[in-house]
Design brief:
Layout lengths: L7 H4 L30 H5 L1 H59 L1
Subcellular location: Mitochondrion
Protein name: ATP synthase F1 subunit epsilon
Keywords: Coiled coil, Mitochondrion, Transit peptide
Length: 107
Amino acid sequence: MFVVRRSASRLYPAGVQLAKMSGSQVGDLGSGAGRGGGGGGSIREAGGAFGKLEAAREEEYFYKKQKDQLERLKNDQIHQAEFHHQQIKEHEEAIQRHKQFLDNLHK
């Protein structure tokens, strides 16, 4: 019999935050400083083609980061399900052993 140990924080995460840019704080992408109060860097503040390129790269970064996070969340859920199915199997086997023990006691 083997024991699988997992931390409770991995089994039941308190909350999952996904990386994303808030559309309400961004004006026209690459057109200069956003409405969120931050400048966004000298290239974004300057606007123009370089600002648009930088904004596109930033959007791509957050898109990929969110995709990776969702993939990890999906894999964690699959591993949790497998873990719990294994636990159910082990508990059912233990129940059968105890039932056989009780049956042998009464004979």
